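Annex B. Sample input.
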Amino acid sequence: MGNLGDWPDAPALLGRQIRLEPLRAEHAQEMAPLLDDPDLHVFIGGRPASPAELQQRYRRQAAGRSADDVQRWLNWIVRRLDDGRAIGTVQATVADEAGDLTAAVAWVVATPIRGSDTPARPRK
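Annex B, continued. Sample output.
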């Protein structure tokens, strides 16, 4: 397989109802209030991050690769098309495992968007 370091950065992507915008550290100010929900973190782990902590995390993630260059990170902010409002994040972690490219995909959608009647619960 090709060198993961040669992969391009996460592109902007457009769907029928959402747009994926490449993640930047500046998104932290907008995203921190959406992710400041202890119930959300029951499922995703950790605790709500402060805007400064989230900005540091986004800065690392926006680099697009692990420090050892073994993983390629593609990170996006999810926005609704109708009003441009941020509603969550998506990440794909790509790795070359013995010549096979693998990807792990994760996403987080803010509780108010999911609906407060569907609490986040950890998988068993």
